[in-house]
Design goal:
4 helices; Alpha-D-Glucose-1,6-Bisphosphate, Chain A, domain 4; seven-stranded antiparallel sheet; globular; 160 residues; single chain; alpha+beta; SRPBCC family protein
């Protein structure tokens, strides 16, 4: 048995979105993300309803192995979703998103916590998950969501 201290990186960011939580929340879904992220195409989605729900599992392409996502909490009334992402041989990640209504729409607090699985690839991923990288990633996500909310189509361009 190997017991070791974790190598982790965590960051939070508050996105300012131009729609109410009840309009934004359904878009936080492996199926509906294709509406607002050009090129988003999970390899597999396992869901009783066909969209995000508690215990939904989906798989996305990643290196060196495809990433497996598992939705652990899906609370539409509270505007909260939490999921785990495991990239075998690299990292385990917890993603949580909390929506809160604002006069302009809603704020989304998005938090990623990446833990290396103790491999060189995992350690390198965690080291590269910097505050500046995360800010750029979140700003792109925020821009894509707001573009979709305003225009009803994905913003052209590859995913960030």
């Amino acid at each position: 048995m190997i017991i070791q201290p974790p190598t982790r990186a965590t960051h939070s960011y508050v996105q300012h979105l131009a729609a109410s939580p009840d309009r934004v929340f359904p878009l936080l879904c492996p199926v509906r993300e294709a509406d607002w992220i050009e090129g988003w195409d999970p390899l597999q989605v396992t869901s009783a309803t066909g969209v995000a729900e508690r215990d939904c599992v989906f798989v996305t392409a990643a290196e060196p192995a495809d990433a497996i996502w598992y939705i652990t909490r899906h609370e539409a009334d509270a505007g909260f979703v939490e999921m785990l992402k495991v990239t075998p041989g690299v990292t385990a990640c917890r993603l949580s998103i909390q929506l809160e209504a604002t006069p302009q729409g809603c704020d989304a607090t998005v938090t990623y916590l990446h833990t290396s699985l103790g491999t060189p690839a995992g350690d390198a991923f965690v080291a590269a998950f910097s505050a500046e990288y995360y800010r750029q990633f979140m700003r792109d996500w925020e821009d894509r969501l707001n573009h979709y909310l305003a225009h009803g189509v994905a913003r052209p361009g590859e995913r960030g």
